[in-house]
Design brief:
The structure holds 2 protein chains of 2 kinds. Chain A has 6 helices and 18 strands. Helices cover 25% and strands 45% of the residues of chain A. By secondary structure, chain A is α+β, with helices and mostly antiparallel strands. Chain A has helices spanning 2-78, 80-91, 181-185, 271-274, 278-287, 395-402, and strands at residues 99-112, 118-130, 135-146, 149-164, 167-175, 215-226, 234-242, 246-251, 293-298, 311-321, 324-336, 339-352, 355-369, 372-385, 404-414, 420-432, 435-445, 450-458. Chain B folds into 2 domains: 43-98, Cytochrome Bc1 Complex, Chain D, domain 2, CATH 1.10.760; 104-220, Cytochrome c-like domain (Cytochrome Bc1 Complex, Chain D, domain 2). Chain B is built from 9 helices and 3 strands; from the N terminus they run ααααβββααααα. Chain B has a 3-stranded antiparallel sheet, with no helix packed on it. The chains are: A alpha+beta, B mainly alpha. The interface between A and B is large, with 72 and 64 residues.
Chain lengths: 459, 222
């Protein structure tokens, strides 16, 4: 009993005092929390103030930039020149202009064995007019300084109507998509050599070529269709109905008509260069039964057709992958009653990095021309390689080397007269992407050897 | 009129009608498909592939929007380029031929890109490398190549050549902000080749940051 008294009384005292002790400790903790909360709020306030200041600074910078822009605009519009610029922009002459002026040209120098050397020049401006999103007009006159004259021609004068994504109707004087050189590769800044491939040229009177760069008056339907085979697979096609060639006679000394499709530096068709072949030509003319007169098909000069026989032709190109194309072309018609012609050709182009390979074959056959059936066949293959993959530490030397592009071209024409064979080696130096300086040497059979230099430009 | 010419005109018109009919059906089908899936080749791919097949490529900055419209129309005829591809080429050229407007916009909640404020914070650490690779291959590989070595199809005729982005030593000298500015506003904005167009009108800021993240990985794991 006594023992329980000793235990119970202290327990009662402790239980009475305990709440006071606990509440005192709790109070101490609450004070500390309040202090830390106050500190936190103070820091947050400080952070918000800093951010507001930062934000104000940012706004200030933005407003300053805007004000500067406004001021510069006002200053710009205050001068007469700038006023004109502003008016031009308002009228939208630049950004909404429907006209565009481009083109190409070249200055050439050539030296053929047995002939005097000569400079030459060609300039072909191209005027575009966009009538609407679907209608496009293109005019390309051509100016060429040759012998004692300035030759002026109209290489292209066409209107294109985009019927849908896959069909375009063109009409006028068009470049014929017979093989690919005439339509895509003949501009001076695109052609890797200073001269045309051996199958192209005026041909007549012992000159180079089977056909000129082909253009004619008529209508064409063309387009492209993507194929879901490999990357970039597609088909492109073109079919055309044109006036076609006409028959012209030319005496021994070359009085016949000539067109202006040759390039600066490429004058294999000039009378001077053909004198070495006159004996052989005489034989050919006699074979044709015309005595001293050569009769030939002339392409591209039949502006007002002399008959109702139109020429029909076309090309289909197939790209299994984006960088390889093979194409087949066909063209036929009557040049005059009972004198028909039939042409077919094949072409291929392959591009990989700096390498570009191009090849074409062309057959031209006609009945009753010069009293009999004649056939002309020709082909060429060309390879060029831009040295852009060569990494050279010296910047200037590297720039120079990377701008070089060696070119090789081999071709042969099988003609009724003597065959023509050509091996050409050349080097291009690209000053800009559309301005090459070209030098080439042609080793020819059936034509004089030639050294050719050309400074070409596209714009 | 000579019966031969009548025959030829009939053949020509028949061919024209046949082609228009077939391609109209083709076009209607293609337009339907275009809604559900995008074309595989981007505008820049089509530009480099179609142009470099015949001649040196011409850079976007060489001509203005209207001029590119006309040039692409002309090339569409010469090259037999389908209409949709021609439009994609023109769109790419027109979007990259002018520097984009100055950007003042948040990239994410806590980062701000400020070109005009002369302060640029680019959060490359959190960039999406997988998306960056896809964006790079669609837009940059035509010149810089899929390997980043500056050997894309359009690079052949470019002087100077596109940079080797797989070169770790060179890439380590470039800050993320420098790359962001160069990609957004073009090479000229960072005193490099003006042939490098500004992509700020084509890619959004996140895509550019993703590309930089991918480039970091590309150069470090070359």
């Amino acid at each position: 009993m006594r023992l329980s008294k000793f235990i119970v009384i202290p327990l009662l005292v402790i239980s009475f005092l305990l709440p006071f002790g606990l509440s005192s400790a709790e109070a101490q903790n609450t004070d500390s929390d309040l202090q830390s909360l106050k500190e936190e709020i103070r820091r947050l306030n400080q952070r918000v103030e800093e951010m507001e200041l930062q934000r104000a600074e940012e706004r200030k910078v933005v407003e300053e930039v805007k004000r500067e822009q406004e001021e510069s605009k006002e200053q710009a519009s205050s001068s007469i020149g700038s006023y004109v610029d502003k008016r031009i922009q308002e009228f939208g002459i630049f950004n909404t202009s429907k006209t565009f002026f481009s083109g190409y040209g070249a200055v050439g120098f050539n030296k053929a064995d047995g002939d005097a050397s000569s400079f030459s020049a060609i300039f072909a401006p191209i005027f575009h007019y966009q009538l609407s999103k679907r209608l496009h007009v293109l005019i390309e006159p051509e100016f060429e300084l040759e012998d004692t004259e300035l030759e002026i021609g109209l290489e292209i004068g066409e209107i294109d109507f985009f019927i849908n994504d896959y069909v375009t109707l063109s009409a006028g004087k068009i470049l014929l998509p017979f093989n690919v050189f005439s339509e895509r590769f003949h501009p001076t800044w695109i052609n890797k050599m200073p001269a045309l491939p051996i199958i192209y040229g005026h041909g007549g009177h012992g000159g180079q070529g089977i056909v000129p760069v082909l253009s004619d008056i008529g209508a064409q339907v063309s387009g492209g269709i993507p194929l879901n085979l490999f990357e970039g697979s597609k088909i492109n096609y073109a079919f055309y109905l044109v006036n076609g060639p006409r028959i012209e006679s030319e005496d021994d000394h070359g009085d016949g008509d000539e067109d202006g499709d040759e390039e600066a530096g490429d004058d294999h068709d000039d009378e001077e260069t053909t004198t070495a072949n006159e004996d052989e030509e005489d034989e050919e003319h006699e074979e044709n039964g015309n005595g001293g007169t050569q009769t030939d098909l002339v392409f591209g000069n039949n502006f007002t057709d002399i008959n109702s026989n139109k020429a029909f032709g076309g090309r289909i190109g197939f790209l299994p992958v984006w960088n390889w194309e093979v194409g087949g072309s066909l063209m036929f018609g009557d040049a005059e009653d009972d004198i028909n012609f039939f042409m077919y050709g094949f072409d291929t182009e392959f591009q990989y990095r700096g390498l570009l390979v191009l090849g074409e074959f062309l057959h031209l056959g006609n009945d009753n021309l010069g009293g009999g059936k004649t056939e002309k066949n020709g082909y060429y293959a060309q390879a060029s390689y831009r040295l852009s993959d060569f990494a050279i530490d010296n910047r200037y030397l590297g720039d120079f080397i990377n701008g070089l592009e060696p070119v090789l071209r081999y071709g042969k024409n099988y003609l009724p007269g003597p065959d023509q064979e050509q091996f050409a080696i050349g080097l291009d130096w690209w000053l800009l992407s559309s301005v090459p300086l070209k030098i080439a040497y042609e080793f020819n059979d059936g034509l004089p050897d030639r050294l050719l230099l050309q400074w070409a430009f596209g714009f | 009129m000579n019966k031969h010419i009548l025959k030829k005109i009939s053949v020509f018109l028949s061919l024209l009608l046949m082609i228009v009919s077939i391609t109209s059906v083709f076009e209607a089908r293609a337009q339907g498909e275009e809604e559900v899936k995008k074309r595989e080749l981007s505008g820049v791919d089509l530009w480099s592939q179609n142009c470099s097949r015949c001649h040196n490529v011409r850079g976007p900055q060489e001509f203005n929007d209207a001029q590119w419209d006309i040039i692409v129309s002309h090339m569409r005829v010469i090259g037999g380029i389908p209409g949709a591809q021609a439009r994609a080429i023109a769109k790419f050229l027109q979007e990259t031929n002018n520097p984009p407007p100055q950007l003042i916009a948040p990239i994410s909640a806590d980062k701000t890109t400020e070109i005009t404020g002369r302060e640029l914070i680019v959060d490359v650490e959190n960039g999406d490398v997988v998306n960056g690779k896809a964006v790079y291959e669609n837009n940059c590989a035509a010149c810089h190549g899929t390997s980043g070595k500056g050997d894309g199809p359009a690079a052949v005729s470019m002087r100077p050549k596109p940079r080797n982005l797989a070169d770790e030593e060179y890439m380590s000298t470039l800050s993320d902000e420098y790359l962001f500015k160069g990609i957004t506003y073009g090479g000229a904005s960072v005193d490099k080749s003006p042939l490098m167009p500004g992509w700020g009108n084509v890619l959004d800021q996140k895509e550019i940051i993703d590309v930089i993240s991918y480039l970091r990985e590309l150069s470090e794991n070359k």
